[in-house]
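Take a protein:
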Amino acid sequence: MERGVKNLNFNMTDKQRSIYLPPRILSCKTLQILTLGNLLIKKFDKVDFPLVKTLHLDRVFFTPPQCFVKFIYGFPILEDLNAKVFLLSSPESFDDPIVKLNALPNLAKVRICYGMNDMMTLFCKAKILHLEQV
């Protein structure tokens, strides 16, 4: 992280169980592409990815679900989001007007799993939205 990493693929899909995301990763200011796989993301203090334009999530579990909103807002210039087998700990809704107003303004392309309907308010400004059935 201290050497200016631009592309990080932290994918633990070969592990038999999900592992926790190391908190140190949540504020790498040089990253431009971030791929996370087979991880648990719990409460954290801060997410700061000022340069990340591409984010891929594969089998990432957020608990509580509000952590996802806090997590995604740490990517102010995010343009491309790909979330496969994306999991929340409970089916709470994100139908909050503040979330709608502040939804990721640079988002151009989103590919998410069918069934993530509660997330649509976050992705409503995307130019391309691809829903994929798992």
Notes: The mean pLDDT is 78.
